[in-house]
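subagent[fold] <- orchestrator: predict structure for attached chain, return tokens only, no commentary.
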Amino acid sequence: MFNIKIMNKISPVGLDKLKTMGCAVGEDVENPDGIIVRSADMHGFEPNSELLGVARAGAGYNNIPIERYAEHGIVVFNSPGANAEAVKEQTLCSLVMASRDVIGSIEWVKSIADCGERIPAMVEKGKSDFAGPELMGKTIGVLGLGATGALVANACLAMDMNVIGYDPFMSVDAAWRLSKEVERGEELSEIFRRCDYISINIPYNENTHHMIDETAFSLMRPGVRIINESRAEVVDDDAMLAALASGKVAKYVTDFPNEKILRGKNVIALPHLGACTPESEDRCAEMAARQLYEYLKNGNITNSVNLPSARLERMGVCRLCVIHHNVPGMINRILDLITEKNINIEHMINKPRGKYAYTIIDLNDEIWEDTADTIRRMDDVLRVRVL
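subagent[fold] -> orchestrator:
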């Protein structure tokens, strides 16, 4: 049985999934084997020595110190794609709001509620103040073609828009999901020059910080409309405010309000509603629970954001799992030790990710604890588990 700590409230679907697997689950669990978290800030959380994995019930993971946890041999998972449908739907809503002054028109109609019989005539006369362009025939650039971006791109095609996608790191799975009618943008500058609308669906990291900056705005078409379902920090707020003031950007719809951007002209800010659907929360919680449990029980890693993903069907009697730095000779050192113990290897896999690597070895006999301890004491070894 594994002990799972819940850092903040998640969908009961995830809790039930873990309980049916025999896990002890709760907010007051001490010395947990795993943690499931939504938005709680874990940067000040000091992990216990038994902690093996942290699963984020959602896609973003800036609330988790992934590098520090990697050095402790703690796998951090996210739930990519589980909330993609919800975010796609909000993006489509945002495209319409960016084109037509839907919010302004609603507020104006409310303001004439006491005008009685004059309301129909006032509506006919005043509606043109809130008009805006159609989406059909316009060109949209979709930055990021992961689970959400691919859905957005395909949906925009269905609305008869011209779609240019940009994602230099697009996975094979994403390519399969994406319609072949989506044009591939080779450079960001191409997106900026050609598009009437831009949908931002990229992950936030040090490489995408302020990707949309003053230089980017200088390349864009006058009157471009921008939808941000990524993170606030992908956009340079000061540059955005200047672009809004000048009219270079006609409308900015963001799911990440802050004090600065709320003061901007033609800003529509939503309270981080992108993934706020009951269906999305259920899927995220279930995915997080399933991935965490699979790692705890079998050592398989899927959708890790700080360590390599690796999956191996179990064979033999015993499984050895080693998280280590990606340095030359490490695998040979481990295999030589196993050979000295006269244990045969049934199956194995080694996966690198930057400066880290993960090795799974299935053996035809039980491995002695002193052998596992010898591996633990090796330089550059971060975590050893025998399953």
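orchestrator: received. Logging for downstream: The chain has a mean pLDDT of 94. The longest strand covers residues 345-353.
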